[in-house]
Design brief:
Order of helices and strands of chain B: EHHEEHHHEE
Helix content of chain B: 25-40%
Structural class of chain B: alpha+beta
Shape of chain B: globular
Strand content of chain A: 15-25%
GO molecular function (chain B): ATP binding
Strand content of chain B: 25-35%
Radius of gyration of chain A: 14 Å
InterPro entries (chain B): HATPase_C_sf, HATPase_dom
CATH topology of chain B: Heat Shock Protein 90
CATH superfamily of chain B: Histidine kinase-like ATPase, C-terminal domain
Distance between the termini of chain A: 29 Å
Helix content of chain A: 25-40%
Oligomer: heterodimer
Pfam family, one (chain B): HATPase_c_2
Number of domains of chain A: 1
Number of domains of chain B: 1
Structural class of chain A: alpha/beta
CATH class of chain A: Alpha Beta
Largest interface: A-B, 24 and 27 residues
Radius of gyration of chain B: 14 Å
Number of helices of chain A: 6
Number of strands of chain A: 7
Number of strands of chain B: 5
CATH architecture of chain A: 3-Layer(aba) Sandwich
CATH architecture of chain B: 2-Layer Sandwich
Keywords (chain B): ATP-binding, Nucleotide-binding
Protein name (chain A): DRTGG domain-containing protein
């Protein structure tokens, strides 16, 4: 069923595929992105295994940044062209968390990354580190 | 004798700061050098508990104790307490307001998630007298 070759993308690939504006993380564009996850529910971000993943979200507040750092997310992309406030940018910068904004919807953003080989967290993370 | 203790104060409804104590705890644990899985579990529990206090609890405090054999998080608040602890431990049960849900919380996963990620969990709650959570995590040789 899996006809698309699975591969890691770089933050730069994510930025280009999503035609994204980057607010934080210009210096980390060669960083590998091992998996993708998408949610507007921060509670869900804390229950799954989201380490090393890029988070696509329609939620645009400081808790997105704090939740991402706690959950081990490595980059955040705001969908539907949402613009982060200065407070959100400052938080992201403080934690060294790349922050981008894409004009695409959540669905289209996920599809564009998936079609280039990025997979969900369930396929990318070694079973040994799954939440108990 | 505990190797390290640190107390953090949590202010009710202060969403501008909500989560900062947990981020500090994550940073302390990283600097000591525990395994990433242990740090992830403790940080998630601290954050879930901190958000619970901010959203439901009233003012409170979070005490981090790092012992050689275990790490303990004690969370106390002076809020209304949990009416039915058994119900609150059920996935999906929530008393969060629409305002909190808009922020991405209140899915009824907080306490169940804490239970899943701790090695031992004690919940002491009485109506009108706040909540005391004691979460323990074993330190295993890495």
């Amino acid at each position: 069923m899996n006809e698309i070759e699975t591969k890691d993308l770089s933050l730069n690939d994510v930025k280009h595929l999503l035609r994204a504006q980057i607010y934080v993380g210009e210096g980390k564009l060669d960083m590998p992105i091992k998996a993708g996850t998408a949610s507007d529910l921060m509670s869900d971000m804390l229950t799954g295994q989201n380490s090393d993943a890029v988070l696509l979200t329609g939620l645009c507040n400081v808790q997105v940044i704090r939740t991402s750092v706690i959950a081990g997310v490595v980059a955040v992309v705001l969908v539907r062209g949402k613009q982060p406030t200065q407070e959100i940018i400052t938080q992201a910068r403080e934690h060294g968390l790349p922050l981008l904004s894409t004009p695409f919807t959540m669905f289209t953003s996920c599809g564009r990354l998936f079609s280039k080989g990025l997979r969900g967290v369930e396929e990318k993370v070694p079973a040994a580190t799954h939440a108990r | 004798m505990p190797a390290l203790t640190k107390t953090f104060f949590i202010k009710a409804r202060d969403f501008a700061k909500a989560g900062e104590s947990s981020l500090q705890i994550q940073s302390i644990l990283k600097s000591i050098g525990f395994t990433s899985d242990l740090i992830r579990r403790i940080s998630i529990c601290a954050y879930e508990a901190e958000m619970n206090v901010v959203m439901h609890g009233g003012n409170g405090e979070l005490l981090l104790t790092v012992n050689p054999e275990d790490i303990v998080l004690d969370v106390n608040d002076d809020g209304p307490g949990i009416e039915d602890v058994e119900l609150a431990l059920r996935e999906g049960y929530s008393t969060a307001t629409p305002e909190y849900r808009e922020m991405g919380f209140g899915a009824g996963m907080g306490l169940p998630n804490i239970k899943k990620n701790t090695d031992s969990l004690e919940i002491d709650s009485h109506n009108g007298r706040g909540v005391h959570l004691k979460m323990s995590f074993k330190v295993e040789d890495s």
